[in-house]
C-alpha cells in the first residue's frame, strides 16, 4: 500500500479531536495549538501528530496511556489514529486501530463521533481493497444522525467525492444530482466547496457548461464572505470569466476579469482572459483553453 494513504492530517486531528472534544476551548500562545479549557494531557502527542511525526506521536500517546489518569477516551483515540501513520505500516497496527475505533464509536461523546468518522475513513483508504460501500454507509450514518456536527459535515464532503466518482450510479447526471441534493445540508463553507466540486465534475463528465458555470458563480458568491486560498480564488475567477465569455455572458465575464485584475494584478492569466473576452466581443472564436 502507498505510504501516502496512511498520513493523518494533523490539523484535522487537532481541530476535530482536541478543540472540539472539549466543551470549551481557548487559544494558546501565538504559534501554539488550540487547547481545551482543561488542557489535554496528551498535548505533546497531538502536536507531534500535527507536525507529521507519526512514530513520535504514537510513542507519546502510549506513554500517556500508562500514566495515572491517562487512559482516557481522547488519548485512546489519539493512540489509535497515530497507528495509521506509524512507519512501517503493519497490518497488526491497522487491526489494533480498527478495534479501538470500533470500541470508542459505541459512546455518545465527541470522541465517539470522531471514531465513527475514522472507521469510515479506514474502510475507504486503509485497506488493500477499499470497501467504498462500507465507507459510504458510515458517512451516511454520521450525516443522518449528526449532520450539523463537525464530523457529520466532514463525512458529507467525503460522501460527495465518493458519489461523484466512485459509487455505482446509472449515469453522470445521477451522480451530479445526488450531490446537488446534499447542498441544503452543508454549512456555507462546505456548500461553497460542493459547488466547486460540482463544477469540476460537470466539466469532467462533459455535461452542459452552463451548469458548471452556475455552480462556479454560486461558489463565487459564497466566497465573498468566506476564507479561501488565493490560488483557488484566482482559479475560480479565471474559470468564471472564461466560461462566461465563451457562453456569451460578457457582462459577467468582464466583472470577474476585473476582480482578477484587482486582487491578482500579477497573475499572467489576466492577459489570456482578456484575450478571450475581447475575441468574443469582436464576434471571433476564442482560442481553445
Quick recap of the structure?
By secondary structure, the protein is mainly α.
Main sheet strand line-up = 1-2
Task: Tally the beta strands.
Answer: 2
Shape: elongated
Helical content band: 55-70%
Helix and strand composition category: mainly alpha
N- and C-termini, Cα separation: 37 Å
- Helix count equals 14
Q: Describe the main β-sheet briefly.
A: 2 strands, antiparallel
> SSE order, as H and E?
HEEHHHHHHHHHHHHH
Instruction: Please state the average pLDDT score.
Output: 88
Rg computed from alpha carbons, rounded to a whole number of angstroms = 22 Å
Please indicate the percent range of residues in DSSP E strands (runs of 2 or more).
under 5%
Task: Describe the protein's topology.
Elements: H1 10-21, E1 25-26, E2 35-36, H2 43-50, H3 54-65, H4 73-83, H5 91-104, H6 110-125, H7 132-146, H8 150-165, H9 172-180, H10 188-204, H11 209-223, H12 230-246, H13 250-263, H14 269-281
Antiparallel strand pairs: 1-2
Helix pairs in contact: 1-2, 2-3, 3-4, 4-5, 4-6, 5-6, 6-7, 7-8, 8-9, 8-10, 9-10, 10-11, 11-12, 12-13, 12-14, 13-14
Amino acid at each position: 500500500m502507498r505510504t501516502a494513504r496512511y498520513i493523518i492530517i494533523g490539523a484535522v486531528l487537532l481541530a476535530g479531536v482536541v478543540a472540539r472534544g472539549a466543551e470549551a476551548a481557548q487559544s494558546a500562545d501565538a504559534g501554539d495549538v488550540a487547547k481545551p479549557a482543561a488542557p489535554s494531557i496528551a498535548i505533546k502527542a497531538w502536536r507531534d501528530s500535527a507536525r507529521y511525526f507519526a512514530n513520535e506521536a504514537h510513542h507519546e500517546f502510549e506513554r500517556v496511556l500508562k500514566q495515572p489518569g491517562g487512559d482516557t477516551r481522547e488519548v485512546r483515540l489519539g493512540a489509535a489514529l497515530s497507528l495509521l501513520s506509524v512507519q512501517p505500516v503493519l497490518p497488526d497496527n491497522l487491526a489494533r486501530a480498527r478495534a479501538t475505533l470500533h470500541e470508542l464509536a459505541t459512546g455518545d461523546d465527541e470522541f465517539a463521533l470522531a471514531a465513527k468518522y475514522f472507521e469510515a475513513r479506514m474502510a475507504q483508504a486503509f485497506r488493500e481493497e477499499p470497501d467504498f460501500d462500507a465507507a459510504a454507509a458510515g458517512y451516511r450514518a454520521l450525516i443522518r444522525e449528526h449532520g450539523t456536527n463537525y464530523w457529520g459535515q466532514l463525512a458529507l464532503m467525503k460522501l460527495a467525492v465518493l458519489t461523484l466518482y466512485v459509487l455505482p450510479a446509472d449515469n453522470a447526471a445521477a451522480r451530479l444530482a445526488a450531490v446537488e441534493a446534499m447542498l441544503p445540508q452543508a454549512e456555507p463553507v462546505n456548500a461553497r466547496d460542493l459547488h466547486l466540486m460540482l463544477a469540476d465534475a460537470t466539466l469532467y463528465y462533459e455535461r452542459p457548461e452552463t451548469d458548471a458555470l452556475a455552480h462556479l458563480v454560486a461558489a463565487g458568491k459564497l466566497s465573498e464572505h468566506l476564507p479561501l486560498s488565493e490560488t483557488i480564488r484566482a482559479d475560480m475567477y479565471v474559470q468564471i470569466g472564461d466560461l462566461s465569455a465563451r457562453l456569451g455572458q460578457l457582462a459577467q465575464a468582464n466583472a470577474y476579469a476585473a476582480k482578477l485584475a484587482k486582487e491578482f494584478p500579477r497573475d499572467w492569466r489576466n492577459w489570456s482572459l482578456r484575450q478571450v473576452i475581447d475575441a468574443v466581443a469582436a464576434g471571433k472564436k476564442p482560442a481553445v483553453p
